[in-house]
Amino acid sequence: MTRPAALPHVVIVGGGFGGLYAARALARRPVRVTLLDRRNHHLFQPLLYQVATAALNPSDIATPLRSVLRKATNITVLLAEIQKVDLANCRLVLDRGEIGYDALVLAAGASHSYFGHDDWEVFAPGLKTLEDALEIRRRVLLAYEAAEREHDGAEQQALLTSVVIGGGPTGVELAGALGEISRQTIARDFRLIDPTKARILLLEGGARILTTFPESLSHSAEDALRRLGVEVRTKAIVTRVTADAVWLGGEQIRARTVLWAAGVAAAPLARTLGAPLDGAGRVLVEPDLSVPGHPEAFAIGDMCAFLHQTGTPLPGVAPVAIQQGRAAADNVLRRLNGQPSRPFRYRDKGSMATIGRAAAVAVVGRLKLSGLIAWLAWLFVHIMFLIGFRNRFLVLFEWAWAYVTWHRGARLITGPWRGRG
Amino acid sequence: MTRPAALPHVVIVGGGFGGLYAARALARRPVRVTLLDRRNHHLFQPLLYQVATAALNPSDIATPLRSVLRKATNITVLLAEIQKVDLANCRLVLDRGEIGYDALVLAAGASHSYFGHDDWEVFAPGLKTLEDALEIRRRVLLAYEAAEREHDGAEQQALLTSVVIGGGPTGVELAGALGEISRQTIARDFRLIDPTKARILLLEGGARILTTFPESLSHSAEDALRRLGVEVRTKAIVTRVTADAVWLGGEQIRARTVLWAAGVAAAPLARTLGAPLDGAGRVLVEPDLSVPGHPEAFAIGDMCAFLHQTGTPLPGVAPVAIQQGRAAADNVLRRLNGQPSRPFRYRDKGSMATIGRAAAVAVVGRLKLSGLIAWLAWLFVHIMFLIGFRNRFLVLFEWAWAYVTWHRGARLITGPWRGRG
Lengths: 421, 421
Fold this sequence. Notes:
The structure is a homodimer. The first copy, chain A, is an alpha/beta fold. The first copy, chain A, has 10 helices and 25 strands. Helix content of chain A is 30%, strand content 24%. At the A-B interface, strand 5, helix 4 and helix 10 of A face strand 5, helix 4 and helix 10 of B.
C-alpha cells in the first residue's frame, strides 16, 4: 500500500460503528489512516431486521464507506480480508499482501454463535449482514408461497410456522415484524391459505424476554407481541434444530422458518491475536481499550469485553461501539503525541427495542417508557443516527408509506430459485 | 391446484409485461385465472440497467405480483417452475405436480443468447433479472476496489477497462451509465487511482449503434456517449471472451469487466411445445397470436415471433408485450364465448433510448428527438409506466437526488466475497 510515509500510519479494521467513528475522529488529524473492511459499506445494523422483514431496502441502511469518508483526504479505504494480526511485528496479513501500522484499532465486530451446534446454522440463519437479511427475507416470503401450493395439511402447517430463537432485542423485533407481516401485510394476498393463521413462536431460554431491560418492560413487550399473534415461550431451551423442526427436549415444534437471535461471538480474527479472550471470544481489554501488552493496539465494540466499569462486559450495542471508537482514536493521538492514554468510560444514554406498529420499550436513565411514546422515541433516535440525508429521507418515506398503507415496500424474493425448502 | 371448477380455467405463464397485462385484462371476467411465475415479482425491465449501475434499488422497479393482483379475486398467483407444456393434453408439467387449462397464455420472455458461445456467459454476464443486475453492479464496483489495491500497472489498467458488447438500447444505456459512474459519481472517492481515467468501450458488430433507430439518432447517441468518455467501435466482431480480455480477431482488449448486451433468445420452455420456432427460439404464431394448430394456446411478447405485420418479428420491447397481452386476453374470452378470434395489430407509439444525464434519443411517428427533450420524454414515459405510486415516487426521488448531487444511491457490493476477479 504505497503512500507518502511522513506521518504515522493508523490502521482501522472494520467499518461498523466502532471503526467508522474512530476514522471520523482521525479525519484531518496529523496521521495517515487506512480503513480496511471486507465490505464496501457501513451498515446501520439496528435496522437490519427491517430489511429481513421486507420493510426497508438494503441501500436504505447502508452507505459506501468511500462516500462517508470522501472529504477526509488523510483516510484511504481499502476492500480487504484480514487473515491475521501480527501484534509483535505491528503488521496485518491480508488476503493479498500485508500492511504495517504504527497504531491499530480493531473493530471487526461479531458473528453468530450457535453454542457448539454449528450444524444448526444452515436451518436457523442469524442476522448480521445484508446477505443474512436477504436470505431471511427470501425464506420468510418463500414459506408462504410454498404453503399456497401445498396439499398436505401437516406440511402446510409447518410452512406456516416460524420460530425465532432468542428473546433479546433482535429476536423481539424479528418476531414482532413476522407477526405484522402475517396479520396485516399479506393478510389478503393469498387465495388458498389464510396468512393470519400463521403461527409465530418466540423462544427464550431465560425467565423473561429482554433480560437487560426492567421487568415491567419485559411484560409490556410480551403483551405487545401477543397482540401481534406471537406466542412467547420463556425457559424454553432448544436442544435440536433440523430442516423442518425445533426440539425443546422431547417436544417437537414443526416449523419451516427458523431464525437465530440467541448468541453472538467476536469475529474469529480476535483468535489470531494471542491476547486474553473471554468465553465469547472477545478481547479482554485494558481500561484504555488497548490489548494487554500492546499499548499501540486497541480493540473496540463487539470485539472487546470491557469489564472495568460494571464488572460484566458492556452490551454489544451501537452506542458502546461509537463511544469506544472515539475514545480509541483519542488514545491513538495521545500516544503518538507522547501523552498517557485515558481510561474509557461508557455514558449510558438508554436503550430501546421495538416490537411493531406504535409499540416499543425504552429505558432512559430512570425513565421507563412503553407503547406509542417509546415507539416515537425509537423512530426519532434511529432516524437521527442514520448516516446521510438521502437514507434518512428514504427510511422516513418507507415508514410513513408502510404506516398509512400497511404494506411493506421490499417484498422481493431474490437469489437462486431452489424450489421450496 | 384445488379451486371450484365452475368457470373456464385460464393459465398464464410469466408475470412480465405480457403476462401481467393479460392477467389484468382478465380480472373480474367470468374465468378462473392462474398466473404462474418463477419469481414473486413483476420486474420493470426497461430500468433494470439502472439497478445494474447502482442508481436504483431492486424494489424500486419490482412489485410483488400478489400485490398488483390483490383485488382481482378470480386470479390465483402461484410461484412455480414450468418444465413442459403438453399442448395435446392441455396441461403444464410443473416442478411439483401439474396443472390443466382451458386456455393458455405463454409469456415466459427471453434470456441471453451467446450465439453458440455459452462459455462466454461466466465472463460476460447479460442483464435480464434482478440477480443479473446485482451481479453486474458487484463486478463494476469491485473492479475499482481491486484497482485501488493493485500494484501491477497492466493489471490495474485491465481492472479499469470495461467492455459492453452490443450496441442496442441496453448496451447504449449500460455504457452511458458506466461513463457517468467513472467520470462523475466516484471521480473523487479513491486515493490511489483516478477513476476518470477508466476506459469504457461499446462494441457493436453492425455499421452503427441503435440500428432500429434512424441514422441521425445513432450519430447523436454516439456523440453523447463520447462526451461521457465511452469509446464506440462499430463493425467490431467479438471472436473470443476470456476472464480478462475480449478478442476482436487478432486484437486483444484487456478488460476485467465485460457485459453482454448482444443477443437474446426465447425462454427454453418454447422448445417443449413442438411448435414451429424461428432462429431465436421464438414461436412463429398465427395472426391472432395463437400457437399453430392450437387455437386455445397463445404465445406473446419475447416468446413469439409475429411476422404478419412487417414481415420481420416485432421488436422485443415492453409496448409490444403489453399490447399482445391485452389482445391474447381478448381472444381467450372471445374463444370461450364461441366468437372468432381477432388478428393482432401492433400500434407503434415510438421508441426511445437514454444515454445519460439529459441525453437520450427518441422516435415518435415521424418525429426524431435527441438531447434534453428526448431525455425528459424518456423520464416521463418510464415514470408513467412504473406500477404503483410508491415505486413512481421513489424512482423520481432517486433520480432527482442523483441529478442534484451527482451521486448514486445504491452503491453496494453484496453477495459472497470472492476476492477480486
